[in-house]
Amino acid sequence: MKTLIIKTGHTETFDAHPEHTHIVSLGDVLRTTVLLEVFKNEHVTWFTSKEAALLLKKNQKIKKLTTDFSDIENEHFDLVLNLERTDEILEKIPHIKTSALLGFSNKTLPEFSSKTMNWSEKLFALIGKKWTKETYSFYWSSPPSSSSRLKIGLNWKVGQKWPGKSWPLENWEALEKLLQSDFDISWQEGFHNLSEYIKWIGSCDYIVTHDSLGLHLALAMKKPFVALFGPTSSHEIDLAGLGVSVSTEDLSVSTLADIINLKAYRHD
Predict the structure, then answer these.
(1) 8-40 pLDDT per residue, tens
(2) Is residue 137 part of a domain?
(3) Is 203 found in the same domain as 112?
(4) C-alpha span between 112 and 192 (Å, rounded)
(5) Which residues, at least 6 apart from 26, have a Cβ–Cβ distance to it below 8 Å?
């Protein structure tokens, strides 16, 4: 069975007011990979953006990865799963040769999207299935740490799309001072280079991160973490037993340091 998944990251899957911007939501693409377990026995083609392709490039559950629509416009698919609501994609959907279409054929969100469900539950409901704790599908490799101390990564920057998620730099600097006697502290690398960013996340033993791509990469790599949420809500993301979530509202640096000291050693 041939299945086509369309997810480029140009719109947030369950955003009530989707806008096509030049800023790609890489985290939205990565967490869509939970669906690959559903189609693991099928021939999956994934159409994505050039920006997101690296996240999917080595995935063995994807038989064909493309960023060029002309690669798929003459193929016939048993199923097309469209997870984008840009005008460009919606105009092309009727012209794709397929026996069945799931996902979006217009910009309207399904009624269940407003219910209290986490993101993965909504995604599975969109294709008429129940989420049973499937996790992200991501392939990466990283050399083992040579340090005798735990390396804690401070994923302190946020992308252009959600500047309101930022926690003040002076708080991160104060956090480093409280932790550096017990841990090796590593500041975020590869902010403008996805490959380097993935390598950096992979090199850390524990991640302190905003609700951002760094959080999704930590989940995909099964790295323990503390995730800072604000103004976004933590209920949408299943932490898979790997981390804890804290609200940045009235969060003190010392409280966060205490959480890290407790949780990081527990995952050692």
Answers:
(1) 999 999 988 777 667 899 999 999 999 999 999
(2) no
(3) no
(4) 36
(5) 9, 51, 52, 55, 194, 213, 216
The rounded distance, in Å, linking the Cα atoms of 58 and 139 is: 6
- In tens, the pLDDT along 104-150 reads 999 888 877 666 889 999 999 999 999 999 999 999 887 666 678 99
What the block records as the tokens of 203 is 């090199």
Rounded to whole angstroms, how far apart are CA atoms 49 and 29?
9
Q: Indicate whether this model's pTM tops 0.90.
A: yes
Which residues constitute the domain of residue 39? 2-126
CATH number at 60 reads 3.40.50.2000
Of the candidates 156, 4, 13, which has an alpha carbon nearest to the alpha carbon of residue 83?
13
By C-alpha distance, which of 184, 176, 201 is closest to 257?
176
Beta bridge partners of 227: 209, 245
Task: Find residue 244's DSSP bridge partners.
Answer: 226
* Contact between 213 and 181 (Cβ < 8 Å): no
Q: What is the pLDDT of residues 95-105, one digit of tens each?
A: 999 999 999 99
